[in-house]
Structures are given as structure tokens and as C-alpha cells.
Design goal:
Blueprint: E1 8-12, E2 21-26, E3 30-36, E4 39-41, E5 45-54, E6 67-74, E7 77-83, E8 85-86, E9 98-104, E10 115-122, E11 131-136, E12 138-140, H1 164-177, E13 200-202, E14 207-211, E15 217-221, E16 225-230, E17 234-236, E18 241-248, E19 254-261, E20 264-274, E21 281-282, E22 287-291, E23 299-308, E24 311-313
Parallel strand pairs: 4-12
Antiparallel strand pairs: 1-2, 2-3, 3-5, 5-9, 6-7, 6-10, 8-9, 10-11, 13-16, 14-15, 16-23, 17-22, 18-19, 18-21, 19-20, 20-22, 20-23, 23-24
Length: about 325
């Protein structure tokens, strides 16, 4: 007679200042919990932290590692998917694995739509099917932003007259920030600002007009925060990480991209000179560059982006405990 495995789910309504929510689940083979930000904002992200305790270690032939996937739904349509990754690779085969995953919310927020999360996971126990958790999610549109509902471009905006060389340079940067390396775990702590005492010229997802040397004009939404700076202003790493890109990137000028977690990068564009090289490790607050684009103007628009799984997301979201470390 085939044994029936019951999965019990307990949703905690007690939130830590509405962030994060806590969901517990259990059956005869394991118990676990998920913490996630139940409320997300326009252009932000959703992080989910999954921890489990395997009660019966799968010693049978065919036993596998714990696996899990995070999916974001708008109504009945899946719009984002991300794999959970182990926060410590040594726990893959231990009885208490801990994992993290994140998906970008994006700027095309539909008022009145029903958003939810689905977590599909397997404890690696032979003969046991994957389980699903359906989690409630509220996404707040940016009421003060008249451009809400318009997509921020995921790819670098290209000058219609751009040379093939510059297109290649921009594509290399795009390839880097779209890379998700499950071993790229360098920091889970909140970001700090990349500048001291700087005032933003424009914020993430604000509409601006871009005029090119060819005379062509395009209206786009900014992919990050822009700052008008005098040349040689110091630029700092927003968190610990590994430099994955440090070179000229076409229309973006001198650019640095730092990996902090799998699929999570901080990107610094329109720089005058670089203090780091590709492959180097950096610490939070370390000087990585000086501002200045080599143009004749005294001030240049330094652009700070945050990229999650290739998508541009609001940098402000990451100035808090986005990885849910304080709620462990």
C-alpha cells in the first residue's frame, strides 16, 4: 500500500514591520520555513529565504540534493522564475540546508492584478514528488511616478549611429550582468550608497529624453540613479563582492560591475578612471573609481544601477536587509 505524505503549511500573520512574512511547512520526512517580503514595490524585488530540516536522511539509492524554484505570477501568468541557491555549498548534503532566491518585480505593474509566489521544492527523498507552496504577494504601484507601468529597458540603450565595436562592448557588459553563478556568494548585507553627500539628479525609472550624435531622440526610463558630479569624485563599492567587469563599455563609458550574490550586481557607469580590475575582490565602502566621462563639461551624469537576473531594479530596495538576514 502506497503511503500518503501530508504536507502541513502554517502561515504566520505576525510580520516584522510587515517585512518579512514567515511560512512554516512540515511532513513526516522534513520540516521547514520560508521567509519573504510579502509586500514589494514598483521596480523592486522579492527575496525568499528557504530553510529545511531533514528528519529522515535519504540514504537510499537515488537520493538527491534539495532543490527549489521561486516563481512570480501575475494572475495566472508566470512572469519570473529563479532557482534557489545554497548559501553554503557544504550544506547541500546536510540535514539542514538553507537557500535563497530572488526575482525582480519590474516596472510594468498592473493595477488590480492578482500577484502571487509559487515555490516548488524537492527534499531529495526517493519516491517523493515535488511539493508546492503558494504565497500571497502585494505589489504596490508607484503612485507618485507618472511613468509607472512602462518597462525599464533591460538592454543598454544604443545610439543608432554606434559603431560595431561599441555594440560589442555593450553586449559584453550585458552578458556579464545576465550571468547567474550559484557559487557567486560574497555578501548578504544591506548596500550603502556609492557616494558621500551626493544629491540625485534623477531616480530609477524616471522618464528622460536621450539625444544621440546622429540627431535621433528617444524617450526612456532611467535604469538606475543618476548623479551630476564634478570630475574625480570618489565612487565606492556598495557591498562586498567580486569585480566581473571593469573596462570601457561603449556609450556607458568606463564601467564597473560587481557581483554580490548569484544574479545580483551593482553597476557603475560613466566613470573617469578605474581603481579596480576584473577578478578582484572588493569590500563595502572601498574606492573603486573616480567620476568623469572624459567630456568637456565640468559635471557628468554618473549612473548607479542594480541588476537582478539581468533586470534593472530600484537601488533603494537594497539599502535595507533585503536578504532577510536579521529575521533568521
Amino acid at each position: 500500500m502506497k503511503r500518503t505524505c501530508l504536507l502541513t503549511i502554517i502561515l504566520s500573520l505576525a510580520l516584522f514591520q510587515a517585512f518579512p512574512a514567515h511560512v512554516a511547512f512540515q511532513n513526516e520526512n522534513y520540516n521547514g520555513a520560508v521567509m519573504y517580503n510579502e509586500t514589494a514595490s514598483y521596480g523592486g524585488a522579492v527575496f525568499a529565504r528557504l530553510s529545511m530540516k531533514i528528519l529522515r536522511s535519504p540514504k537510499k539509492k537515488g537520493a538527491q540534493d534539495v532543490k527549489a524554484v521561486l516563481q512570480l505570477y501575475r494572475d495566472d501568468k508566470r512572469i519570473e522564475t529563479a532557482q534557489f541557491y545554497f548559501l553554503n555549498s557544504r550544506t547541500k548534503r546536510l540535514s539542514t540546508p538553507e537557500m535563497l532566491a530572488a526575482v525582480p518585480v519590474g516596472t510594468e505593474v498592473s493595477t488590480g492584478a492578482d500577484y502571487s509566489l509559487k515555490i516548488i521544492f524537492s527534499a531529495g527523498i526517493p519516491g517523493e514528488n515535488a511539493k508546492e507552496l503558494i504565497l500571497p504577494l502585494t505589489i504596490k504601484p508607484e503612485a507618485e511616478n507618472p511613468d509607472a507601468g512602462v518597462a525599464v529597458p533591460l538592454e543598454p540603450v544604443q545610439n543608432p549611429g554606434m559603431t560595431a565595436e561599441r555594440v560589442t562592448q555593450q553586449q559584453k557588459l550585458l552578458d556579464v550582468i545576465e550571468t547567474v553563478d550559484e557559487n557567486g556568494i560574497f555578501s548578504q548585507k544591506a548596500f550603502v550608497l556609492p557616494l558621500k553627500n551626493a544629491v540625485k539628479a534623477s531616480s530609477f525609472a524616471q522618464k528622460r529624453s536621450q539625444t544621440y550624435s546622429s540627431g535621433t531622440t528617444r524617450t526612456i526610463l532611467t535604469t538606475g540613479n543618476e548623479y551630476q558630479l564634478p570630475d574625480n569624485t570618489e565612487i565606492f563599492a556598495v557591498s562586498d563582492g567580486r569585480v566581473r567587469f571593469a573596462e570601457f563599455a561603449g556609450a556607458n563609458g568606463w564601467t564597473v560591475a560587481i557581483e554580490h550574490l548569484p544574479g545580483l550586481y551593482s553597476v557603475y557607469k560613466n566613470l573617469g578612471s578605474l581603481n579596480v580590475r576584473e577578478g578582484e575582490s572588493v569590500r563595502q565602502g572601498e574606492k573603486i573609481a573616480l567620476s568623469g566621462s572624459g567630456q568637456e563639461k565640468d559635471a557628468h551624469p554618473f549612473l548607479w544601477e542594480v541588476r537582478l537576473n539581468g533586470a534593472a531594479v530600484s537601488p533603494e530596495f537594497f539599502l535595507q536587509d533585503f536578504a532577510l538576514t536579521a529575521a533568521e
